[in-house]
Amino acid sequence: MNNKLLEIEDLHVNAEDKEILKGINLTINKGETHVIMGPNGSGKTTTANAILNNPAYKKIKGSIIFEGQDITNIKTDEIARKGIFMSFQLPEEIPGISVNNFLKYAKNKITGKPVKIFSFKDEVKKYMQELKMDTEYAERSLNVGFSGGEKKKNEILQMLVLNSKLAILDETDSGLDVDAIKTVSKGIEMFKNEENAVLIITHNTKILHNLKVDYVHVLVNGKIVKTGTGDMAKEIEENGYGRYK
Hints:
- The chain is α/β, with parallel strands linked by helices.
- The chain is built from 7 helices and 12 strands.
- Helix 5 (148-162) packs parallel to helix 6 (178-191).
């Protein structure tokens, strides 16, 4: 049985005519948690955006395979429907669209099935309570007036409700205090099972303290220069990235 979920092969990506990724190779299997770490400007966020085929990032060479299908050049919304979720460093504010309505619309688009309103609202409420979010936020405009921590929790709420096959979390821990990081980590553990996978992109190690990580990849100057177990994150925390540059 093929356990591979995502395969990136020799991926080269430009942004604004500058080469950012210079030949990335990465395989993520079902049930795994991977982390891409690296200094600022190394290409971490570019990697995430390339997987989702953000048009601001131009693929020059290489391929991205998801569940055996080539998704290198298909549209972002199609990629999302195939089961890839991405959280953002700076979540968008959308006035006039409530959290509940946004989640309901996204769930319908991804599954292609009608959403059962009452059971859906119960599910959202349950997850919000688990994430220590004020349940009244479900009826507020998406991210409008939310603190930085609440915006990041709301991203994790989306991940749980949409229940995608691969969750890509781009700097989800950025700007969070210790308690919020623990809550986000709890949400990741709630999401994880043997049929899905998580890719965490970070330059920090705080979010990793409460997670079981299978592989850490160090990305420097557009290339993965080292791959190791979760223990490698501790070494980076103590000694930084100097030895990898």
